Amino acid sequence: MSDFTYTPAYSSQLKTAQRVRTASFGDGYEQRVADGINTQPEVWQLTFTNVDTATADAIEAQLKGYAGVTAFTWTPPGRSQIKVVCDPQNGIIHTYSTANMATITCVFRQVFEA
Question: Assign residue 82 a region: left if phi > 0, alpha if psi is -120 to 50, beta otherwise?
Answer without folding.
Answer: beta
